[in-house]
Amino acid sequence: MVFYSVTRDHIDDQFAGEMRGVLNSLIAAAEVEETEVKWQPLEHSIEVGVQDEFGPVHWIVIGDHGLTVEQSRFIDRDFISLAKQSAQQVSQPSDVDEHPTVLMQSSGVWETMTQQVSAPQPVHLERELDEFDQLTVVVGRSSVPRDAIVFRLRLLVTLLPLLAWSLAALLGRWIVRKALQPVSAMAEQAQSIAGTDFDARLSHGDSGDEMTELGTAFNRLLCRQQAAFEQQRRFAGDAAHELRTPITVLLGQIDVMLRRPRSEAEYEATLRQMRHQTSGLQEIVETLLFLARSDVDSTLPTLRPVHLKRWLETQADSWRSQPRYSDLTLDSQLEDNTVVNATPALLGRVLDNLVFNAFKYSESNTTVMVRAYTTDRFAFIEVIDSGPGMEPEEIPQLFEPFFRSDEARRRGIAGSGLGLAIASRIATTLGGKIDCQSTVGQGSCFTLRIPLAK
């Protein structure tokens, strides 16, 4: 818009400047005296005949009573008629020293400039042919060429940006499509991956740009999905295996009882065995439901302050019924005011699991120590045994459901592999964590860490 305005002003100035130059030349050719105005162009060698891209400048000099004194060659008849009308409209100046009045008009396709020169004190006498009371000079030119140039300029400033924007849009579209081509290829690969095809991965280049990072991140997501799916499938298989054993035992006992009539005592003994098996089955089902529940679905229990030292002493008294209670050593370094936010039931379940595992996997007459202490922010409860220990590669899998070490399977120690998994889940729910350090042949140390109450 600025370019158009500046160029349009330049065109108008050039168009009018040529006419003004011709007008000034003709006015200068007139000799203004006290009583008359003389027009003697031959004495002044007037040469007027502008011809540029706007076309010729027409001019005419009109004397007294509308007399045509002189005019340009090949003058247009319409211009002559328009010039005489303009001459009648020009007002006569009152003082020759003032700037003469220039009348600028637009009529149809013509642009005109009119200026009049008059004698200060004209004397109405018989005059020579070149003497006049006043002279009116009219110059003009057709505006058609100028309007055509302005029209082309308007087309230029309108179409050129549109063309530039169109080319930029097409080029930008091509560049964007070229840049997003790897993304489109990756999208097609992603759409072709079936919902059960967890082994499929996206193929991408190794250019080191954002596309490579995107492809790598998506493949890592697929790896995590595959790991989660395999874990879920293994979880379901192990759960089915663990449930099959007590159900098989129940069915076997029922079939045996139905083979022949039994005494009341036999029925009662069998029912007691079946109730024991059913209780174990119920515990397994509840544990599976707890582990299968996501963190979002889990309802956070209502935590309350628990004085850890008194609670630990009370909890230790509940272990007196264990056959290996005499092997247990309690080393409490807790202060009386040691408080954690927890629920006694969940906290007891975690510690019971750790202590009973230590009894299960260590030999009789070996010490199982429960040590408790605090730091600035946390309370720690360690359960240390002198069992067979574990290989370093087995420790990261300890808290996965149904995991059992090779040593435990070799020794035939009974268990479902769910205890540590649910203990870890409860510790996380309480804002804590369970860690394990183990050395083969020397035993293991399980550490429960819980934040202190503020």
Automatic annotation (TrEMBL):
Q: What Enzyme Commission number(s) does the record list for this chain?
A: 2.7.13.3
UniProt keyword annotations, A-Z: Kinase, Membrane, Phosphoprotein, Transferase, Transmembrane, Transmembrane helix, Two-component regulatory system
Q: Which PROSITE patterns match?
A: HAMP, HIS_KIN
Report the residue ranges that make up the HAMP domain in this protein: 177-230
Q: What's a Gene Ontology MF term here?
A: kinase activity
Q: Which InterPro entries match?
A: HAMP_dom (IPR003660), HATPase_C_sf (IPR036890), HATPase_dom (IPR003594), His_kinase_dom (IPR005467), HisK_dim/P_dom (IPR003661), HisK_dim/P_sf (IPR036097), Sig_transdc_His_kin-like_C (IPR004358), TCS_sensor_his_kinase (IPR050428)
This chain belongs to the protein called histidine kinase
Q: Which organism is it from?
A: Neorhodopirellula lusitana
